[in-house]
Write a structure and sequence with these properties.
Helix content: 55-70%
Distance between the termini: 67 Å
Mean pLDDT: 90
Largest sheet: 4 strands, antiparallel
Strand order of the largest sheet: 2-1-3-4
Number of strands: 4
Radius of gyration: 22 Å
Number of helices: 8
Order of helices and strands: HHHHHHEEHHEE
Shape: elongated
Length: 163
């Protein structure tokens, strides 16, 4: 066990880690992070809501610090798994209770309905007419009156259903 600790520089101050120890830490952290992300579920990176992105930022920050030795290896990896578990638990609960889903993941907003722009929603989300028109063109819709529905999704993307 002592040899294993020595290999990964456990208990060694960051500035005294050898190149080999940092490289071994990098490999271990990569494998552990891959396991954590797989455990966190596929939606972790797919949905891109604030709920999902926050886990990604925190996980990246924590794991990077373990590689360079500024944080402890074992406890930080354990904390990563705990955060992934919390993410899954909150995701599960958000699916069961709509009010919690709205609180954690946000809600959708209708921007265009039957060709009519909802100005209040555009203003509320700081979207200009040019922003909306750009999204319509990207989705292959020429103008608002040619859209049956345009929705600002929880991920921040605008989905469009043509008439």
């Amino acid at each position: 066990m002592k040899t294993l600790y020595s290999l990964f520089g456990v208990g060694v101050e960051a500035q005294h880690l050898t190149v080999t120890q940092v490289l071994l830490r990098a490999v271990l952290v990569f494998v552990a992070t891959l396991a954590i992300v797989r455990f966190a579920d596929k939606r972790f990176f797919a949905k891109k809501t604030a709920f999902d992105i926050i886990l990604g930022f925190i996980l990246a920050s924590m794991m990077a610090r373990t590689i360079n030795g500024s944080e402890q290896l074992g406890p930080t990896i354990a904390a990563g798994f705990l955060l992934a578990l919390l993410h899954r638990l909150l995701g599960f609960l958000a699916c069961r209770w709509r009010w919690l889903g709205g609180l954690i993941k946000g809600s959708t907003q209708t921007l265009i309905e039957d060709g009519k722009i909802r100005r209040r929603q555009l203003d509320e989300h700081h979207l200009s007419d040019d922003d909306l028109l750009e999204e319509l063109r990207i989705k292959g819709v020429e103008s608002p009156d040619k859209a049956k529905l345009a929705t600002l999704e929880r991920s921040g993307e605008i989905s469009v259903i043509p008439k």
